[in-house]
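Q: Could you fold this chain for me?
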Amino acid sequence: MNLHERFYIEKRIIDGVTQATIARELGLSRSTVSRELKRNTDPAFHGLYSCRRADTLAKARRLNKSTRDAFNQQTPQTQDFI
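A: Sure. Below is the predicted structure, expressed as structure tokens.
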């Protein structure tokens, strides 16, 4: 999901539109929109969804994940070397 989609979600949530409608308008599944709101709504924002904060949280999570996965997917040769 990109910042433009997140901005659209933020605007439509403020307008009182349902997650199902937002998903349909963006061509996404309802679960994608629901997951986005659940994962990337910062508790410090008191339950309010911010597209910029959501984008920052998602990017940070992605960076941390790629580092962890790189170490978890070692080949037998790499493990022998270590």
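A (continued): The mean pLDDT is 88.
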